[in-house]
Amino acid sequence: MNPKVVGISSSLIRNVASRKRESSIDLGLGEPLLTPNVAHLDAAIEYVRKHGVRYTQNAGDPQLRAAIASHYRYPGLEQAENVCVTVGSQEAMYATLLALLDPARDELLVVEPAFPSYVKMAALDGVAARTVAMAEEEDFAIDAERIIAGIGERTRAIVLCSPCNPTGRAISTAQAHVLVRALERRGGTITLIHDEIYREQNFRERADLAQLYANTIAVNSLSKSNALTGLRLGWILGSAEFIEQATKVHAWATSCADTFAQRVALHIFEGNAVGEYAAWYRERVQAVIAALRESGLRFIEPDGAFYCCVKLPDGTSSLDAALKLIDEQDVVAIPGIAFGECFEGWLRLSWVAPMESLREGLARIVKFCDAHRAQSAAGTPHK
Amino acid sequence: MNPKVVGISSSLIRNVASRKRESSIDLGLGEPLLTPNVAHLDAAIEYVRKHGVRYTQNAGDPQLRAAIASHYRYPGLEQAENVCVTVGSQEAMYATLLALLDPARDELLVVEPAFPSYVKMAALDGVAARTVAMAEEEDFAIDAERIIAGIGERTRAIVLCSPCNPTGRAISTAQAHVLVRALERRGGTITLIHDEIYREQNFRERADLAQLYANTIAVNSLSKSNALTGLRLGWILGSAEFIEQATKVHAWATSCADTFAQRVALHIFEGNAVGEYAAWYRERVQAVIAALRESGLRFIEPDGAFYCCVKLPDGTSSLDAALKLIDEQDVVAIPGIAFGECFEGWLRLSWVAPMESLREGLARIVKFCDAHRAQSAAGTPHK
Questions:
Q1: Are A307 and A314 within 8 A, CB to CB?
Q2: Which one of A232, A236, A346, B303 is separated from A254 by 20 to 30 angstroms, measured CA to CA?
Q3: Predicted pLDDT at A383
């Protein structure tokens, strides 16, 4: 077997989440409980009944590519040739990293806390990744100076998820300008890869990096915005030259995205429905913040995405806590350590679960933390 | 950019096929003109209307994995754990090659003529590929002795497409036994990767290598069997240990296959409908062979798949001929050179086009060949 593959650990997030029982309060996986708008599915159904499900071009249906490009209107990325339609944002990121980075020379800089797949995808291709940690004392705010300080000699690209999974922090316009000016002073050769998958769940100001910095690649999907996780429909927005190379990786890895999924996407973009759940999220986050305040736990107030993160008692292993939470309290939460060393001691909770589940989950986490503190105080050995 | 990606040429097949005009007789792409059975789509539609399209487990819906394993009943590969559901057979092959081969040590042996993606996928991961050519004088019959002779010291796996794209040749049971015995004498350490995508278009005896040789990985999809190319639904059948590693690659590259597509697949497997078009193909191939005989062209009689291959006049460049055929005769055919040096001088024709198109296409190819021979005879310089 390929030692690079054997050496990559399987997903800690999915491993923890898979322990869920029928009875569990599931604050684990990043999947909206909202149901998708059936109108989009119906449009695709009508199409496939009439036309079957034939291959599209590797880079996707030309009409869909054009619709995506003109929806975002990022400067210089406004044409169909600037889009490659992929199997979710997962493949979009995979093809981007593989096409962009030369394993012999380049290094990827990952802004942490971060979804673990960036580093693993890079590892799969033998690309070195370095990480730069945002600061706990600043509630992991996305800080341009810290990112710049993390750049190494071989850094060819920076991957930034904003709004961020797991922290819910989004880069502010002011910080985005600081970051972009610094990169421009360096000649603009470092590529910014903006993982925008939570773009439609952004509750404060939004900074689209592709609006500000020419050397940006944006990666996105319909999974979160339109509650279509299992549809596996994403895309890459980038220069035509880059898209040509990324499309090769995409073509050899998967050929093309599912035609049914592409028709769903076309209906969404042509109907300008990408943001159809944005108001629901904006309203919901207020209730979430209220529940977090009420819990008394230390938490990070979300700028975006649909996670909230809470701090465990000092010195607690987040993996240990997550496993015990399932065993003792029947609550599924994701351990911070899955998102980088700097996020140890935190738990990520998904708040797309019903509000009563979130409230009950928070109450049980409080109970768990209290018990843990009591045990520590009594000198009970930490298992 | 990644030089490994830049260095890989884009698909010659798609490049030639994309020159097709509205008026063209298209014998190019390997896509059945049959429409899919709407009953399968309806079952999936009913599901997604009710349940949305949520993520499945990375390796696929457990019910589907079990249904696939028990449909094929290959010895030792009969459980759900022996299946990873992928984004078409393209990703199945990609994940297989990445998980199986160590770029530092292993070499892949490709039996040619072959679909070009095997070599390109290996190249993307930095894995060396060697090729072994079947013999033109034997009409490219799949010959076990030749394959064995092609094995090098570092050969870790052999990839064999049977029935074969492009030649339509399938390995006979007798040849399969010769191959398997030789591999067993070598200790059974070399893995056979059987690309079975044309398994349901097999008009003579069928040899399923996974039935005969324990160290076999089978790769397949619904694209050809059920006219669902654009659905992007395939799978890998292999040892549980191997599937675990291949699933990692699949998980990091695409996460999981489309849930809609998985529901279509479940309906097909549970309804035992994988072979639903087999009779149509068996009938059609007789008419195809009659048309080929009538044309007077040298051709390879297909054992399976839905291609027929015809020989160009001696010394003709197949790429040159394919481009001129589009320009001068408005016929799209794929140049043999796309499938390896040994197939230069041949054209691959897809016979899933309407019969009258195939007949007219063959007539125009005859006209083209006659003109070319006349030009050569007259000493006209070959452009």
A1: no
A2: B303
A3: 42
Could you tell me the domains of chain B?
Answer: 3-30+277-377 (3.90.1150.10), 38-270 (3.40.640.10)
Residue of A19, A29, A38, A53 to mutate when probing chain B, most B C-beta within 10 A: A53
Question: Minimal Cα distance from A93: which residue of B?
Answer: B253
Q: How far is CA B4 from the centre of its chain?
A: 24
Say if residue A132's pLDDT is above 90: yes
Q: What is the distance between the alpha carbons of residues B111 and B146, in angstroms, rounded to a whole number?
A: 9
- Residue A368 touches partner B, C-beta closer than 8 Å: no
B258 near A CB under 8 A: yes
Would you say B199 and B78 are in contact if contact means Cβ atoms under 8 Å apart? no
Q: 227-256 in A: which are within 8 Å (CB) of B?
A: 227-232, 242, 244-245, 247-249, 251-256
User: Please, which pLDDT band fits residue A288 given cuts at 50, 70 and 90?
Assistant: very high
Cβ atoms of A366 and A297 closer than 8 Å = yes
Give pLDDT tens digits for B240-255: 999 999 999 999 899 9
Q: What residues in B contact A249, CB-CB < 8 Å?
A: 5, 124
Digit-coded pLDDT (tens) for B301-334: 999 999 999 999 999 999 999 999 999 999 999 9
Contact B53 A230 (CB under 8 A): yes
- Comparing alpha-carbon positions, the chain B residue that sits nearest to A189 is B1
Count of residues making up chain B: 383
- The pLDDT value given to residue B379: 58
- CB atoms under 10 Å from CB of A293, counted, come to 11
Is the distance from CB of B123 to CB of B5 less than 8 angstroms?
no
Using the predicted structure, report yes or no on whether residue B380 has a pLDDT greater than 60: no
- Contact, B74 vs A237, CB < 8 A? no
Let me know: does B295 contact B365? Beta carbons within 8 Å: yes
Helix (H, G, I), strand (E, B) or coil at B153: coil
Tokens for A196, please give them.
């925008």
d(CA A104, CA A126): 8
When pLDDT is cut at 50, 70 and 90, the band that residue B33 belongs to is confident
Contacts of A38 in chain B (CB under 8 A): 49
Q: A235 and A85 in contact (C-beta within 8 Å)?
A: yes
Q: Which residues of A touch B257 (CB under 8 A)?
A: 232
Indicate yes or no: CB of A94 within 8 angstroms of CB of B249. no
**A74-112 pLDDT per residue, tens:** 999 999 999 999 999 999 999 999 999 999 999 999 999
B20 touches chain A (CB under 8 A): no
The answer for B 284-323 residues in CB contact with A (under 8 A) is none
| A19 three-class SS | coil
**What DSSP designation does A328 have?**
I
Q: Do A2 and B256 touch (CB under 8 A)?
A: no
| Number of Cβ atoms within 10 Å of the Cβ of B379 | 7
Q: Which of A10, A58, A228 sits opposite B14 (nearest CB)?
A: A58
pLDDT bucket at A134, cuts 50 / 70 / 90: very high
